Amino acid sequence: MDHRVIKHSLVLERSLVPSVVKAVLHTILFHRYFGNVTPQENLILSDQVTYVSVDDGNVVSTVDSKVEELMQVLQQDGGKSQVTVSFSETRGRKASWFGTATPQSVCWEEWVVDVQALGRAHGREERAAQQRLAVDQAKHAIFQVICQADAHKDHIPLIASSQENPFPYHIAVAPAAGLWSSMIKRAILPGMA
What we know:
193 residues; Cell Cycle, Spindle Assembly Checkpoint Protein, Chain A; four-stranded mixed beta sheet; 38% helix; 30% strand; globular; disordered C terminus; protein kinase binding; Autophagy-related protein 101; autophagy; ATG101
């Protein structure tokens, strides 16, 4: 099976990060959530950008909690972080000599979004420029997600389950590449970094 990795980058003013990242995550999930989906239309950035999300309380709360986690990481790690959405298939393994068969989770697609948060501009014109940049990036990222999800379907496993969403997803927030040392330091020495 082909494991596909799709990457996007966002460079945004810190206060605009949550709405744009939520839009991107919800767009990814909407196009890869293979259950019975009720779409919900959403507007962000002064109603200049529209995106569609899955109208499901669990999906919404998961995305909201991961965006909150992202904002905390951005404050601690110099304004850079990474959000990864991975989709997997659960396969049964053959029984071994040492025990019974255990299910195996195999990732078939990952979406990696690098996020860099910029400081707030001081002048009115600079803030307007940051808003325009955020609108452009949000539209571009959402469009790219839709194009990538639509163009690349050959690697998606066959649906062999009657579960609501047959392919579990996982959203992870981590420091951007090169900042792993600070994450390890925080794990070893809480309160440091």
